[in-house]
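Hello forum,

I keep getting stuck at the same step: I have a sequence, I want structure tokens, and every attempt I make locally crashes halfway through. Rather than fight my setup again tonight, could one of you with a working pipeline run this one for me? It's a single chain of 242 residues.
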Amino acid sequence: MTGADLPHVLVVDDDDRLRDLLTRYLGENGFNVSAARDASEARASLSGLQFDLIVLDVLMPGEKGVDLARSLREAGSKVPILLLTALSETEDRIAGLEAGVDDYLAKPFEPRELVLRIEAILRRYGELPDTADAVLAEEAESEASFGAFRFDLSRMILQRGEEHVYLTTAEQALLAALVKRRGQTTSREQLHGMVSGNAIDPTASRSIDVQVTRLRRKLEEDPKQPRYLQTVRGQGYVLYTD
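Reply #2:
Ran it on my machine without issues. Output:
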């Protein structure tokens, strides 16, 4: 890729040292990178430039990261957002998922893990090519239909009739996991492991519950009386496609 073709990432963090480190590291690993020290600077950048992903810190002076994410989603922005949190900030992670962020990464973290998370999100949005193994897996079963909905597993696209239904990458990953196990009850911990690759997370159950709630709002005529995405009390969730 030429420089102009590289994915453009906006790093928003008030910690000068960390912001500079991430900007340099991402730049060395195949990304165009812009940086902002707070929500105000981020808004200025977003008003004038196009980004493929935002890396957003939770705790910043003034407008918090979660509030910025929520505001962007309410304004209709579909730019993927990866939230940076501290290990102890459970409520912030849950609030971020509720606000529509696509993934979160707890500090401290290895910069390489951040790159892998970003690449995974961009692949789901079609901004990066899939690996050969992923392509083969997707070709094995590329589509699932239920009711008026059709979910394309190869492109992670949900349609209702001819209408495209917007999903965050976290919602895409969860729906894909449920589709692959449709008709089977899957625990929250299993779903979290399938979605994130890390089943060891004290917030796993709550984060899956949040994403299920968001999915139901998009899939169900009455989210409180779901037809497709149902709860199996004490066990987990199951997606019915018949």
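Residues 3-124 form a domain with the Rossmann fold fold (CATH 3.40.50.2300). If your local run keeps crashing, start a new thread with the error log.
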